[in-house]
């Protein structure tokens, strides 16, 4: 009887110890999470604001934008245009971290340094870079559950598109990136739209071993490759850029000789779904590119 009572006492003490340890562990994790989430963060581009919203992050500042702002940030302070954020507004918010994108580093780096603002550049160059950025922020702010949920959904959609097209002949696709003023570049698979075309089991026309996102247009190579589909994307002022593209195409007979023009497979894409950087519209953009390129 004495042994049985002793055993019960030991089990009771062990139970109390386990419960206490679990409570302390949970409390410590909660404090850790709260500490990380209490960091004051400013996102300076719309794409990064979308990423933060997907991860359920709190933000102290967001960029001015013409596009719909996520509900959680309706009353969040604005810090100016993504290409030229206001250093004064950012400093006034006194954030722990400011996030921008790698493509703006050369344009904005000196301003941040001169104003002693701690800025971190995130890469949204391609679909894979988007996944890396999601995981980077999720790890820092304890939001992995949200990152995993979105990335798993994205991977399922990419696999679905690839499986659907695995028996189709790959099409040669030329991606052009236009800018206000009439200038334009040729996009590679190192660009966002180029990576989406690649994920649909098609071929982006580009020189071998291309390193950059965008390169100068090589008309000789384009004529040789004979693109079956041409995708035109505007960096800004889409109406102006689209008009410039059409003027260029109609005034240069070489374009009209390409299969894409002869078969009327030239498409003009616009933001926010189709952008120069990867964003949270990626699944919609993937399915849109798939429909455009793999149209029967």
UniProtKB/TrEMBL annotation:
Top-rank taxon, per record: Bacteria
UniProt cross-references to Pfam families, sorted A to Z: Peripla_BP_2
Domain Fe/B12 periplasmic-binding: 40-296
InterPro entries: ABC_Transporter_SBP, ABC_transptr_periplasmic_BD
Family under the similarity heading: Belongs to the bacterial solute-binding protein 8 family.
Protein's recorded name: ABC transporter substrate-binding protein
Lineage: Bacteria, Bacillati, Bacillota, Bacilli, Lactobacillales
């Amino acid at each position: 009887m004495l042994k049985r009572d002793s055993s019960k006492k030991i089990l009771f003490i062990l139970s109390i110890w386990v419960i206490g340890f679990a409570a302390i562990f949970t409390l410590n994790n909660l404090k850790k999470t709260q500490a990380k989430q209490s960091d004051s963060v400013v996102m300076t581009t719309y794409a990064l604001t979308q990423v933060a919203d997907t991860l359920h992050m709190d933000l102290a500042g967001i960029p001015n934008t013409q596009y719909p702002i996520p509900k959680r940030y309706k009353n969040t302070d604005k810090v100016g245009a993504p290409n030229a954020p206001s250093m004064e507004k950012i400093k006034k918010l006194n954030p722990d971290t400011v996030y921008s994108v790698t493509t703006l580093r050369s344009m904005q780096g000196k301003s941040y340094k001169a104003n002693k603002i701690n800025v971190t550049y995130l890469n949204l160059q391609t679909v894979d870079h988007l996944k890396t950025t999601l995981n980077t922020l999720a790890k820092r702010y304890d939001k992995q559950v949200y990152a995993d949920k979105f990335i798993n959904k994205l991977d399922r959609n990419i696999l679905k598109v690839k499986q659907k097209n695995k028996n189709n002949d790959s099409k040669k696709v030329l991606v052009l990136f236009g800018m206000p003023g009439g200038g334009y570049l040729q996009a590679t698979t190192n660009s966002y739209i180029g990576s989406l075309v690649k994920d649909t089991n098609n071929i982006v026309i580009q020189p071998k071993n291309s390193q950059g996102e965008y390169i100068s247009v090589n008309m000789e190579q384009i004529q040789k490759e004979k693109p079956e589909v041409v995708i035109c994307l505007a960096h800004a002022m889409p109406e102006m850029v689209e008009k410039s593209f059409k003027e260029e195409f109609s005034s240069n007979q070489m374009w009209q000789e390409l299969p894409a023009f002869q078969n009327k497979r030239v498409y003009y894409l616009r933001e926010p779904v189709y952008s120069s950087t990867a964003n949270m519209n990626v699944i919609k953009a993937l399915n849109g590119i798939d429909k455009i390129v793999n149209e029967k």
